[in-house]
Amino acid sequence: xKMNKKILFSMLFFGVSSMAFSEDYFDYKALLxxxxxxxxxxxxxxxxxxxxxxxxxxxxxxxxxxxxxxxxISYDTKVTVSAKAAKVPYGVTLVAGKQxxxxxxxxxxxxxxxxxxxxxxxEFVGGxxxxxxxxxxxxxxxxxxxxxxxxxxxxxxxSYTGSxxxxxxxxxxxxxxxxxxxxxxxxxxxxxxxxxxxxxxxxKVSSTNTLLGNVIGVDGLKTGYHxxxxxxxxxxxxxxxxxxITVILGSAHAKDRNAIGARExxxxxxxxxxxxxxYAQNTNNNNNTSSNKGNKISQFFNSLxxxxxxGTRKIKVVNKNDIVAIVKIGNDKFNLYPTKxxxxxxxxxxxxxYSVTLNPGISRQSRGQVVGTYTATDGIQTFTGxxxxx
Length: 390
Hints:
Largest sheet: 6 strands, antiparallel
Strand content: 25-35%
Number of helices: 10
Order of helices and strands: EEEEHEHEHHHHEHHEEEEEHHEEEEEEE
Number of strands: 19
Shape: elongated
Structural class: alpha+beta
Distance between the termini: 34 Å
């Protein structure tokens, strides 16, 4: 009788501090990656209409900022929170009858994704929630975003609102993010903060966007979750004046959504898509002659050593010729290499720690094939890619 033997394997890591559990990079229902100018780099199921959850609040903020732009209200305008708004579930504690500034309610809505704060803004800006929801839908139509249908100012499901489901597709959310960045830049002054305070410093608000501070350049835009929607996120990041946007809808797990977002952002810049992006923020138009001369001299010396004017240079952070790990199958050892190099613009090479996820069913016959993925991070930047067994 022929016996089936299980192949046992072990791994030796190079530069690995600990083994991490695998993220599922296909855990989404819709995905879109593009630049600020409308050039779509990658999309998958981007026209499918999905529940928005708290991504709904982007429109709530836009309508509030419209009122501020028109001069009808200001960031310091006081809003009295109604008893109904105070009872809306999830978020910071708002006391019924107490006054909060518009700024405080925007902080709670954007950073903490506080449903009661969004509801309070809806009541205040619209006069009533039904009227505010009508304003939301009119604004979506005005923008030409026809998949977006709003039913609430906060994105809570019908079981809470007694209304319909806020919904839309990734393409229209991408366009909405473009509008926010270009026409409502104050939004990012709120969303880039991991932590802030409201109510005269008495209440702390912490961001639901865990990529802030963990992936270079991320400064917005909005997360969302409920059971029907799954984990959603509209992300934007800027590096060297080049901005990109990523929309991820319907992840079963927030950790997967965040891992996908980190990978798409890093791959966007690693693959040089940002270099074709002509939209740059915070440009300096200083025409001071002596300053320009100094810049030219600096640029000349930096060019000699391959550095950019800001002191950064192109650095290969992941080398396809470097062994990431060794797999032992029976008595045989096989090396795992990245399938491609990853380069970034930086002043120095980051010290990366790797974690590896292997595909099921690896055997000696897998030599020369992609057998898994790696994640490499220095705690701020994260890089991901495929591994080949040799």
